[in-house]
Amino acid sequence: MARLDPLPEIAEQAAYYGDGFLHNNIFWPMEHTKQMVAFYRQRFEHYGHGRADQAIVGLGGQVFVRKDSQKAWDEFRPYFDNAPVYGHGPSMEDFTRETPLTVGSPQQVIDRYAAFREDVGDYQRQLFLVDHAGLPLKTVLEQIDILAEDIVPVLRAEADKHRPTDVPSDPPSHADLVAKARAAGEATDLHVVGEDRWTGRRAEDDADETADAVTR
């Protein structure tokens, strides 16, 4: 297997428990994203939670959108060039080519993000970062409106149209996983409401122990 980045443990942990895996790929090229998602899917299947293509996956993303593509580039460039994180580094052209950052029209965002399924398979969640690069609140709120009105409904419809019927559209809830574990005889000791289904502990217990350790 090719080398993974320093956080394959997160994908491994999510796969072990049968949880969904959100790859926060906003600074990574698609080659890396494909590698991490493929690793998670492989381990999800290894632990018996279903086929690899049935694993619950989410991706990160960044956009700056205006109705006119050139206006989007002209407006966003000063913010990008001086952004606290990526300012004074790679050019906006390089960054939009090599990472999920997409600057342009709603259709350009739709085309690019709808195509991600070709690289990582059908996935269930798409996170958009819009409050970035020092954008003023008014602009951020405008971005949210464009996403809600022109982009997200189309992406959701495209995902539903292409997703196979035996690939879930929603991740299981904690209650779903507990019920599944109980049905399989893996959680016979879960008699306390709120108790963790794997360790038999509750978050409150850990908090109490931590407090005791601090006061000792």
UniProtKB/TrEMBL annotation:
Residues 8-120 form the Luciferase-like domain. It comes from the Bacteria. Keywords: Monooxygenase, Oxidoreductase. Residues 205-216 have a biased composition (Acidic residues). Residues 189-216 are annotated as: Disordered. Gene3D superfamilies: Luciferase-like domain (3.20.20.30). InterPro entries: Bact_Lucif_Oxidored, Luciferase-like_dom, Luciferase-like_sf. Coiled coil: none annotated. Residues 189-204 have a biased composition (Basic and acidic residues). PANTHER family: BLR5498 PROTEIN (PTHR30137:SF8), LUCIFERASE-LIKE MONOOXYGENASE (PTHR30137). This is Luciferase-like domain-containing protein. It comes from Luteimicrobium album. The lineage of its organism: Bacteria, Bacillati, Actinomycetota, Actinomycetes, Micrococcales.
